[in-house]
Amino acid sequence: MRALPVGDRALLVELADGEETAAFHAELLRRRAAGVLPPVREIVPAARTVLLDGLDDAAGFAAGLDGWRAEAPDARVPDTVELPVRYDGLDLAEVAALWGVPAEEVARIHSAAEFRVAFCGFAPGFGYLTGLPARYAVPRRPTPRTAVPPGSVALAGPYTGVYPRSSPGGWQLIGTTDTVLWDPARVPAALLAPGTRVRFVATAAGR
Fold this sequence. Notes:
This protein is α+β, with helices and mostly antiparallel strands. The protein has 4 helices and 13 strands. It has helices at 18-34, 58-64, 92-99, 103-112; strands at 2-5, 10-14, 42-45, 49-53, 80-85, 115-120, 127-130, 145-148, 152-156, 159-162, 167-169, 172-176, 197-202. The strands form 4 sheets. A 4-stranded antiparallel β-sheet has the order 1-2-4-3, with helices on one face. Strands 5-13-6-7 form a 4-stranded mixed β-sheet. It has a 3-stranded antiparallel β-sheet with strand order 10-9-12.
């Protein structure tokens, strides 16, 4: 763990890998909920970093991190977002070939996994979800599409993501959901936030 100053009131904490980042982020949230975390305006996780913005004493906070022990996120989280999916993506056959399974097995394998939002980015409402075993990691497409339809469920590297709106993208498309991921009229606007547990549920049409 390494803490780097960002201005006078922020820290960027670098971690060894995604698991350590998830554990550190979960520990920050636990301490904030317990009222023992110093005031901080924002806690923003990424793939291997966590940004803490709005600290009154960033240097003092960094000095105290040496004594921290962060445990893995609690898997017994009661609130899980379920996303119904039609496994009808344009790249379903290609992903099946990469996994070495029949196309219909992709839906079973993917919907059987328990996902967690590791961090958010790329577009409002877009979460990077971990949960698939490492052997199912797939490369991005060599040529990104100029427009990916909203609701597309996609894979890239170790992550699953759902495109909240139409945008360019190079992820492998395996399915579609009608769930609205980003709605400015909703509070909160984003359905998915770091730490959220997610289950993909194959619809009858997608089985």
